[in-house]
Amino acid sequence: MKTAIIYISHHGTTEKVARFLAEKSKQDVELISLKKEKNPDLRSFHRIILGGSIHAGGIQKRMKQFIENNLELLMQKEVGLFICCMDPHKEKQEQEFEHAFPDKLKQSAKAKAVMGGEFCFERMNFLEKIVVKKVAGVSESVSRIDWDAVTRFLNEMER
Ligand SMILES: Cc1cc2nc3c(=O)[nH]c(=O)nc-3n(C[C@H](O)[C@H](O)[C@H](O)COP(=O)(O)O)c2cc1C
Fold it and tell me: What angle do CA 157, 23, 151 make, to 5 degrees?
């Protein structure tokens, strides 16, 4: 049974989570970055995990487009969905997750999770640093990945 973890990451956090999932999985896993491959072929995979991050309220356009282009095929697979984000409020995180993926896919997903996130100042450009300082009140790198959520997600996917 082959699994694809298809992710998109701006500063490396979603990639870190995707790599952890791939390492800990008991399945045969292929990691695919949508930055490198815009429209990977899903046909040989039984299970698909989709992960992206939230910037200015939304998931990456490339992930949205990929899902839109492949929705019918994705509906025939075992699917897991996750986001990385840094809003501290659970309600807001849930809203961000809700907006990130289409209803049809969320309803049929085997596992869903908000994995927390990181602010990586060394990877941000000038404008991003200003936005994060202003909006989040944070001015140095911080990691708040929810590793328990990551592990729970993996267990649910592999149950
Ligand atoms: C410019 C900027 C805007 C962001 N906007 C949001 C946001 O609207 N909501 C949120 O929950 N997190 C927001 N974040 C936090 C990111 O989701 C977090 O940094 C995440 O770990 C990024 O993952 P990535 O490196 O895989 O892209 C923002 C981060 C940056 C740098």
Answer: 45
* pLDDT tens by residue, the chain, 159 residues: 899 999 999 999 999 999 999 999 999 999 999 999 999 999 999 999 999 999 999 999 999 999 999 999 999 999 999 999 999 999 999 999 999 999 999 999 999 999 999 999 999 999 999 999 999 999 999 999 999 999 999 999 999
Q: Quick check: 75 and 108 in contact, CB under 8 A? A: yes
In the reported structure, the alpha carbon of residue 132 is separated from the centroid of ligand 1 by a whole-number distance in angstroms of 9
**How far does residue 44's CA lie from ligand 1's centre (Å)?**
32
The residue contributing the CA closest to ligand 1 atom 5 is: 55
Domain map of the chain by residue range? 2-117+145-158
Q: What is the pTM of this model?
A: 0.98
| Topology adopted by domain 2-117+145-158 | Rossmann fold (3.40.50)
User: CA-to-CA distance for 94 and 144, rounded, in angstroms?
Assistant: 16
